[in-house]
Description:
- By secondary structure, the protein is α/β, with parallel strands linked by helices.
- The chain folds into two domains: 2-119, Rossmann fold, CATH 3.40.50; 127-244, Rossmann fold (3-Layer(aba) Sandwich).
- It contains 13 helices and eight strands.
- The protein has helices at residues 9-14, 16-28, 44-48, 52-65, 77-90, 98-106, 111-119, 140-144, 150-158, 180-183, 185-202, 212-225, 234-245, and strands at 2-5, 32-34, 71-74, 108-110, 127-136, 160-164, 206-208, 230-232.
- The strands form two sheets. It has a four-stranded parallel beta sheet with strand order 2-1-3-4, with helices on both faces.
- Helix 12 links the parallel strand 7 and strand 8 (230-232).
- It is globular, with a radius of gyration of 18 Å.
- The mean pLDDT is 92.
Amino acid sequence: MNVSLFITCLTDLFAPQVGMATVQVLEHFGCKVDFPEAQTCCGQPQYNNGYPGEARTLAERMIRVFKNSQYIVTPSGSCCAMVREHYPLLFKDDKRWENDALEFVAKTYEFVEFLTKVLKVDVAGLSLPSETAVTYHYTCHTRGLHMGEGPCVDMVKKLGNTTFAPLEKHDQCCGFGGTFAVKYTDISAAIVKDKVTCGNQTQADVMIVNDAGCAMNIGGACHRYGAHFKPRHVAELLAEAIDNRHPPQPKG
Length: 252
């Protein structure tokens, strides 16, 4: 199965380890992964700020770049939701672009969605290197993909050496919201402080956050307020478990 990685801007710039973990996990489960280097932004910042024309220009580029991909997988629920929800609207009734846009939408998946719906992976044989208490932040845009928290949480619970701790207000926004955090700093700061408080109450070591923007926001708040947990993408945990099962061989 051939998969093209759609890395997204924030993951590329601020969390490249998540991209590498995503590739490692996909390859472990039998995928051949390529990375179209011409990819850029999906257009979400422009679209959300009222510039659909500029967003469409970037969307056209994405469609061209991934034209020959069998599947497109992204570690960002936010950018996947942009593609899934808004690309059909950007190209509606456009005789030149609509079919290509809908083909692009149909083959684009969020990472957990792809693992569970397409690959139907079983992680029961994988285990983290040491006992780890894990909680889960259900990001807003994941709901836009009509994904409940179940697929990711169920997967984590099957990993060896994990204890799952439910998060109070798990489906409450972290306060990032892209430019919302810039335009409404006081509101954003109050929301993310509440998220960190709830996270600390779980006594978890790790809070799974499967969106780079949310992870960056929560991670910054963890640093400011002092937190017992660290935000991580589920791909990082799965890659760690894979390494624990098949440790890298020393060179030489």
